[in-house]
Amino acid sequence: MNNRQKAFKLSNGRCFYCGETLNDDYEIDHIIPRSKGGSGGKNLVACCKDCNSFKTDLTIEQFREKIESMIENDFHGRIYKKYFGIRRKHFNFYFEKENLMGDGWGNG
Ligand SMILES: [Zn+2]
To answer: By CB distance 3.0 to 4.6 Å, which of 21, 38, 46, 104 could disulfide with 30?
Structure first.
């Protein structure tokens, strides 16, 4: 299994961030961006195009803040629907709800 397939399996074939079911054209994201010192292995996760393009080179917490601010401007819009059948503020990513990272990860 290559890294791409491992990442897909890790998140049960769903986007690591929003939980959407992935198609074959899923993308691979670095949880900790390469520009901030992240490398491969467990740092690689499968995600949808939207999440990858929203996250860019942000950390998880920066990404969370970005989504929360997007939702403020998009209540009931596309972004809201994507991330929030959940809650308006302080939502959890799919990987948090499913505890995909176990206890081995910090918040950064
Ligand atoms: Zn996603």
So the answer is: 38
